[in-house]
Amino acid sequence: GDLVVLLGENTCELGASEYLRVIFGLEEGRPPMVDLDREKRLLDCCLLAIGQGLFSSAHDVSEGGLAVAIAESCMAGKLGFNGEITADIRPDALIFGEGKYSVVASLDEVNLAVLMKIVDEMGIKVTLLGRVVPENFTVEVRDSKGDYKRIELSVQEMVEAWSKSL
Question: Beta-carbon neighbour count of residue 33 at 10 Å?
Fold first, then answer.
């Protein structure tokens, strides 16, 4: 039942990403931009929230993007996720982009007000992604044109696929 939030901004950068390599066979593109000030503010925010015991879990968005960060968290906790994300960009770029400066965190809903105060003071964006659920991973991503991607599978299916890969 915990809320799942994205701290920071998903810049949706696909250059040099796993998505391009695995789906399209491309190993090219400009890697994500680096902004050390933004990265430090995000990390300071996370450390403060962790220090106050606000998070049940936290995972950086990196290799594989947002969908992979959530999936890895589900597999580690043996719990599922149910969410719907809307953005003004292509759904595949949103969920598989590897832009820096974002962290997926889960927290009890009673901790949300304190987190919102922290992110406001530090100038960090926060986006509600969905909720932790018992067994399945379901995410639906829509862009402003109505195009969408839906991923749905059991956490057990993800664990089996992951354990059989290199």
Answer: 12
Please name every residue paired with 107 in a beta bridge, in sequence order, or none if there are none: 3, 55
Can you give the length of the chain in residues? 166
- Tokens representing 73 are 């968290």
Q: How far apart are CA 72 and CA 49, in angstroms?
A: 21
Q: Beta 136-143 vs 102-107: how paired, if at all?
A: unpaired
- Count of Cβ atoms closer than 10 Å to residue 82 Cβ: 17
Q: How far apart are CA 119 and CA 123, in angstroms?
A: 6
What's the pTM value of the predicted model, to 2 decimals?
0.90
Residue with tokens 């040099």: 16
156: left (phi over 0), alpha (psi -120 to 50) or beta: alpha
**From CA 108, how far away is CA 104, in angstroms rounded?**
14
155-163 and 66-77 helices cross at what angle (nearest 10)? Answer: 100
Q: For 4-36, how does the pLDDT look when each residue is reduced to its tens digit (9 = 90+)? A: 999 998 777 888 888 888 889 988 888 777 889
CB-based burial of residue 17 (10 Å sphere; 0-12 exposed, 13-18 middle, 19+ buried)? buried
